[in-house]
Design a protein that fits this description.
Oligomer: single chain
Strand content: under 5%
Number of helices: 12
Structural class: mainly alpha
Largest sheet: none
CATH topology of the largest domain: MetI-like fold
Distance between the termini: 57 Å
CATH architecture of the largest domain: Orthogonal Bundle
Number of domains: 2
Radius of gyration: 24 Å
CATH superfamily of the largest domain: MetI-like
Shape: globular
């Protein structure tokens, strides 16, 4: 066998190895989602050993049961209010903070950046007690907007750092040219910097939405009445003292997973279009 044939064989074997590795990792990552969907269309008798990987026959009674026995619509509405409110408030705060840290470097700014990063190292279990006391004095306990503020405080630090990196990639010369043409600094930010950073803002928005959509710890601690429950807390109610409604729980979880998936697909198109939204003519 010639050296060229051995070299080509080695390249082909490496390609096959990496393709097989990617397929295995994809299967491992996608299997929990498949199992959730497959189990949601299975009857309760199929939750036995050995497990059945392909549901047969298909049964949609678990979806009907979840929609009729539990207030899915109310949980969905509460979660949507909290997630959208957290996303909008987090974007407003993190965009302004990221712009400030990126465009006005100073010792105070670097200290603020370090402080923001340090806050991400504090576990939520240390924050929930003082937050509970403060929210109680402000009358924000058992309120959806109190949960919005809690989720915003948790997501803003990392969102600020992410947006700072995107704003650093936008040349300052573009803003200075706009100010020479008569724009104020804030108008230059709004007309030049923000459009160029649209992919980053969209990514941060998806990040904040996903954090608040699946958040459980603050939602379980700061909200007490079941009429203000969000989806993550509502799913926990499917687990009883002696019996767990697995089929109904997985059916509800499948329905709850659809909005983040649709948002990601929509934001993916927005991030792609945002790459050319700030084009400058020469």
């Amino acid at each position: 066998m010639s050296a060229r044939s051995r070299r080509e064989g080695g390249v082909a074997s490496r390609i096959l190895f990496w393709v097989a590795l990617v397929l295995v990792l994809a299967i491992v990552a996608a299997f929990p989602v498949y199992w959730m969907v497959a189990s949601s269309v299975s009857s309760a008798s199929q939750f036995t050993y050995p497990p059945q990987f392909f549901p047969h026959p298909l049964d949609l009674d678990s979806y009907r049961d979840a929609l009729t026995r539990w207030p899915i619509g109310r949980w969905f509405g509460n979660t949507l209010v909290v997630s959208v409110g957290t996303t909008l408030l987090s974007l407003v705060v993190s965009v302004l903070a990221g712009l400030s840290v990126s465009r006005f470097p100073s010792r105070i700014g670097r200290g603020f950046s370090a402080f923001v990063l340090i806050t991400q190292m504090i576990p939520a279990t240390l924050l929930v007690v003082p937050m509970y006391i403060v929210f109680g004095r402000l009358g924000l306990l058992d309120q959806l907007w109190g949960l919005v503020l809690a989720d915003t405080a948790f997501s803003v630090p990392l969102a600020t750092w992410m947006l700072k990196g995107f704003f650093d990639s936008v040349p300052v010369d573009l803003e200075e040219a706009a100010m020479v043409d008569g724009c104020s600094r804030m108008r230059a930010f709004a007309r030049i910097t923000v459009p160029l950073a649209t992919p980053g803002i969209a990514a941060v928005g998806v990040f904040c939405f996903l954090i608040s959509w699946g958040e459980f710890f603050f939602a379980r601690t700061l909200v007490t009445s079941d009429e203000h429950w969000v989806l993550s807390v509502g799913l926990n109610s499917f687990q009883g003292e002696y019996v767990t409604q697995w089929s109904s729980m997985l059916a509800a979880a499948t329905m709850f997973a659809l909005p983040p998936l649709l948002l990601f697909l929509f934001a993916q198109r927005q991030m792609t279009s945002g790459l050319t939204s700030g084009a400058v003519k020469g």
